[in-house]
User: Fold this.
Amino acid sequence: MTQSKSIIVIGGGVVGISCALSLQADGHDVTVLEPGPVGEGASWASCGCIAVGEIVPLSQPGMLMKVPGWLLHPEAPLSLRPATALGLMPWFARFAANSIPTRMRSIAADLAKLTFVATDDFKAQIADIGHPELLVERPVLKLFDDEGDKATMGAAFDLARELGCTIDEISGLEAHDIEPGIAPDFRYAAVLRDWSYVTDPRKLVLKLTEAFLTRGGRVLPVSGADFERDGAQITAVVCSDGQRLAADEVILAAGTQSKPLAKKLGVTLHLEGVMGYSTALPDPGVELKHTVFYPKGGFGITPYEDALAVAGTVEFASLNAAPKWRRADVLVKRAHRVLPGLRTDTRERRMGRRPFTPDTRPIIGRSRSIANMCFATGHGQLGLTLGATTGRIVADIVAARSIALDIGAYTPDRFHHSGRADVGTNLQGGRNDD
Ligand SMILES: Cc1cc2nc3c(=O)[nH]c(=O)nc-3n(C[C@H](O)[C@H](O)[C@H](O)COP(=O)(O)OP(=O)(O)OC[C@H]3O[C@@H](n4cnc5c(N)ncnc54)[C@H](O)[C@@H]3O)c2cc1C
Assistant:
C-alpha cells in the first residue's frame, strides 16, 4: 500500500474520473473538481469506440497543401475556421510538420503502446465498478465507395497492420450481409477486428463517477481556477468559488482547458480543441449492431443503447470557439448514404472538443518544473479509449511504482524546446517532435 495523500483531480471527464478511481484504489483521499454536468465532457459527443487501431495521426502527407480547400469549404469533413486560422497557425504548422513518414511511424508506435493495452485496462475498470455490460466487443466496419476512396486509407491501414492491428478487407456486399441496414452499393469495406465500442459514453462516465462517490470520493461542482505554490510545489488549488483546497498532489485532467491552467504554472502545452459533433437519433428506424465509419463523409454511426449516434467532423477552431450546429446536420444528411432507411426527425445534438496535441500523443506524466502535479490530458481522438490506461499510469506515477512502458514520449515538457522542428531529445529523455 502506498502512503495516503490528499489529491485534487481537476476535471471529471472520462480521463479525470479514471485517474480519480485508480488513485482512490491506492488508498488516497481524492477530490474531483468538475464544473459541468457529469458525463457531458467531450466523450459525450464521441463515436464511443475503444479505438485500438486509431494510431495513425491525422497529419497526413501534403497536409498544408489542403488548408486552402478547408478554408473554402466549411462543410468538408475536415475544416479550419477562417476567423481563427491565423491564431491556430503555429499549432497547425507543428501538426503538419508531423506528416513526415518517419514521424508518422514514430507517433503511431507510441500510440500503439497505449492502445494495445487499452481494452484490457478498460475491461478491468468496468468489471471493477460492476458494469462489464458497458462494452460491446464487436469489430467496427469502415465503408468505401470505390477503389479511389479505399486508397485514401491505404497507407494508414498498411502502417496500422505493420504495427500489429488486424484489418480484414471485404466487399461492400459482405458488409451489407453483416449489417443489412447498410446500402448494398459500397464497393469495399474493412473490418477493424481490434476495436469495440461502449453502450453509452455518458453512462460510462456517470457509472465511473457513481463508483468513485460510493467509495468515499468527492466531486465538487467548481472549476480549478489557480494555484498556490511554494517553489516547485503546489500547496493548494484555488477554485472558481474562491475556496482554497490544500493538496499533496494535483492531477491536471481538464481536457482542452488544461492549457490555460498549465500556463498559470508556467508550463506551455501545445493543445487545441478540435471540434466534433454528434447527433443522437433515438428513433432511427434501422437496426445496427456494429459501429460503422464512412471516412469519406467524415463520420461514424454507433448503435448506443438508446439511440444511434452520427458523430464526427474534424474542425480546427480556437479553444473556446462556439459550435456551428449546421456541421452536425450535414453529417446526419450524409448518413443516409450509409443507412438509406435512417429516420432523422427526432434528434439531439452534442459538440465535443478533442484535446489535441500537434503530435497526436497524449500528455501524461510530470513536468520537471512542478514536483507534485501529474498531467493527464491531450488524448485527442483517443480519450475514451485511453481513460482507464491513463488512470493506471497516473496512479503508478503518484505511487512512484515502476511503469511497464516507457512514458517519455508523452511528457508535458516536450513542448519546451529550442524551436527546432526536428526530432530531438529533451532533458528527461522525451522526444521533441510536437
Ligand atoms: C466527434 C468525436 C468523436 C470521438 N470519438 C472517439 C472514439 O470513438 N474513441 C475515443 O477514444 N475518443 C473519441 N473522441 C475523443 C474523446 O471524446 C476525448 O479524447 C475525451 O473525451 C477526452 O477526455 P478528457 O477527460 O480529457 O476531456 P473531456 O471529456 O473534455 O473532460 C474534461 C472535463 O474537464 C472539465 N473542466 C474544464 N475546465 C475545468 C476546470 N478549470 N476545472 C475543473 N474541471 C474543468 C470539463 O467540464 C470536462 O468535463 C471523440 C471526440 C469527438 C468530439
